[in-house]
Amino acid sequence: MRVLVTGGAGYIGSHTVLQLLAAGHDVVVADDFSNAKASIIGRLVNLSSKQITVYTVDLTDEIATEHVFASEEIDAVIHFAGFKAVGESVAKPLSYYRNNIDTAFSVLKAMDAHGVRQFVFSSSATVYGENPVRERTEDMPTSATNPYGWTKVMIEQILRDLAEADESWRIAILRYFNPVGAHVSGDIGEDPTGIPNNLMPFVAQVAVGRRDKLQVFGDDYDTPDGTGVRDYIHVEDLAAGHVAALDRIGTTDQPLSVWNLGSGQANSVLEVIAAFERASGRDIPYAVAPRRSGDLPAYWADPSKANRELGWEATRTIDDMCVDTWRWQSQNPDGFPDL
Ligand code: WQD
Prior knowledge:
This protein is an alpha/beta fold. Helices cover 40% and strands 18% of the residues. It binds UDP-4-deoxy-4-formamido-beta-L-arabinopyranose.
């Protein structure tokens, strides 16, 4: 199929582009490059030996979005495009609601107009909110504790209403846990702009010497070692989950499905630090700091629905994730080059 990957120049989008190409699909990338370097496209072409059609486009612009669909024969869409920094969303709620909701709206409106019905949505485990049950299942209620999370909850609701109104839609909502790692080549990987919000890229930047030390946000949680526990999933496993979901909605008679994409394994901050030290052979200095507001003690996926219905499972271990992250970071100490 010819698949439009919005946000395809981003961390998860780029890894998914490679796996779509390897699976024999054609790929069209639409990205505004507000949070990605254009140099990644050349890396993707080199790694895949395929041509990739790229549109630099602000997908909140309905006319520009319509132009992409008028110019390309799109069969399906995987929608990654959106702002995703939790802390930034608290500071800039209007920017987050405008960008994330309008981007989804423009894409869905253009799909509707062109009879494109297969839509894979990049959602997040953050929609499970503060549920006291730590193992998350897809039937749990959704809520959020920050504007970023609310945009995911709201777009999921838009998708449920759309599927209710028109059963010809084939929608997959994929709820990611904590994506980390990098392509085995080390040529692409996570390259956050500015100071990393997330644990793994920060640890990697400490290991490569870009940061002095890691702040561990609290060691007094109700967890085995007191630090936060999360379900880390290798970005290559996550990308494979998207290809599997795309295949599945091509054959299902369900207008909308929800799947957790997680490993089902839980690791603490201290365990991630230890794994990264094993992978890199470098010490990761850290200091315990106060808890970060909004952080939950521990949660992880029950991935059994995706395992069963998608014939997919996460296979890589936390050590694999750290080895692959380290290869990317050590080969690209300053991330992607400017063109
Ligand atoms: C993981 C653990 C921190 C940084 C976020 C978003 C979520 C999704 C994934 C988009 C926690 C601790 C972190 C640091 C630390 N993003 N930590 N020092 O918060 O689980 O999820 O990213 O969809 O929506 O909320 O990921 O990597 O920020 O934190 O101690 O410098 O590492 O307290 O326990 P999180 P994270």
